[in-house]
Amino acid sequence: MKNILLLSLLTISFSTYGDLWIPKANFGGQGRADAVGCAINGKGYIGTGYTTGYSADWWEYDPLTDAWTQKASFTGNSMVEATCITIMGKAYLLPFNNGNNFYMYDPTTNNWTMKATFPGLQRQGAIGFTIDNKGYFGLGGVNSVNPHQNDLWEYDPIADSWVQKASLPAAARMFAAAFSIGLKGYIGTGSSSSGTLSDFWEYDALMDTWSQKSNFPGGARFEGTAFSVGGFGFMGGGYGTLPKNDFWRYDVQTDTWSSIAPLPHVGVVETVCFSIGNYAYLGTGWDGNIFMNQFWQYTTDSTALSAQEIGMKDFYLTVYPNPVKDYFVIQYPDNTIRGKITLTDINGKIIFKDIPYTKEDKINSTSLANGHYILTFKNNSYSKTTKLIINH
After folding, report:
1. CB-side exposure of 66: number of CA atoms within 13 Å?
2. Residue 8 and residue 219: Cα distance in Å, rounded?
3. What three-state secondary structure class fits 9?
4. Are 341 and 351 in contact, with CB atoms under 8 Å apart?
């Protein structure tokens, strides 16, 4: 007779868009804040930042194996609060605490090369984005005399040259969030001399003009993060009065914002994010207590994950039926494997934790509200996470 696990009545709120944050392998280096990162040719990169001091290490993430590999360290001074983007298969890094030096990382040779000197003032907490194989860097802070900037510079990697573009026609700021979609760049929030900001702006690279868009609806903040996936922009995290974990989706066609699933962690600031294909990845940062090494994958398509196994390789796990009506069963090939299961909602709230489980036990789900959940199976050797949908 298989065990029946009874669950108490709980409620859940879930995203209109079926989006989901999935925990992945922790960042390979030491937990940190104010690192930089980017994606190149289907792999992610994170490095530098603050641990117990400034760092220069550099790590590569392979989403196919969910594994990290240490690469050649950044060759300039160890640093924090730099800016990194990708152009034509290479990373370009505008550092802080390295004068006006500007660097390129080539993943095929695993080498760093110094490029044309950045012609603006040295700065930290700048923004960066890529449009049509050119890089754009700007804003940020310089020093106590001249703390906030609103300038924008275009870098051409073929000519290895810089051109100043139209400045942001709004409050000079540092620690803003930025992303690009098509031939437009987008920046919002940040810290200015008058306080934190919630305004949001679009930059047209063809016309070299700025236009103000709908304010970021999550409220004024700084040191948040942003990315783009599937033609939409996403912004969230950062400091309000405290670190935040909310995220919002921006529709460039309608100039409207919609709330999405919050990061399943307490508020986070000074994180790194990048996009690979139809997924975004976010990790490291500070949550108000510790420097983090956690790392998540974000997807906008929950239906694609209803039967997808995520976690350690060489361990096949299936949950059925999925979507779930009255009960569900976890199935895996090895009858000898026993473990514990944990269920959380998409906001990270624990429904139950470390319940003993044996293969094909039936779990009664009648007391659970309809919605999306994260199920984790683990023991001393394995850890596997998958999506669960309750639909009575």
Report:
1. 18
2. 35
3. coil
4. no
Tokens 């305004």 belong to 199
Q: Please check whether residue 296 is in contact with residue 348, taking contact to mean a CB–CB distance below 8 angstroms.
A: no
Taking the C-alpha atoms of residue 191 and residue 174, their distance in angstroms, rounded to an integer, is 5
pLDDT, tens digit (0-9, with 9 covering 90-100), for 286-337: 999 999 999 999 987 543 333 333 333 345 567 878 888 888 888 776 655 6
CATH topology of domain 4-15+304-390: Immunoglobulin-like (2.60.40)
* Cβ(328)–Cβ(7) below 8 Å: no
Dihedral angle over CA of 262, 251, 63, 14, nearest 10: 30
The pLDDT tens digits for 283-293 are 999 999 999 99
Rounded to whole angstroms, the maximal C-alpha distance in the chain is: 74
Between CA 377 and CA 392 the distance in angstroms is 23
In the chain, what are the domain boundaries? 4-15+304-390, 20-300
CATH topology of domain 20-300: Neuraminidase (2.120.10)
- pTM exceeds 0.85 for this model: no
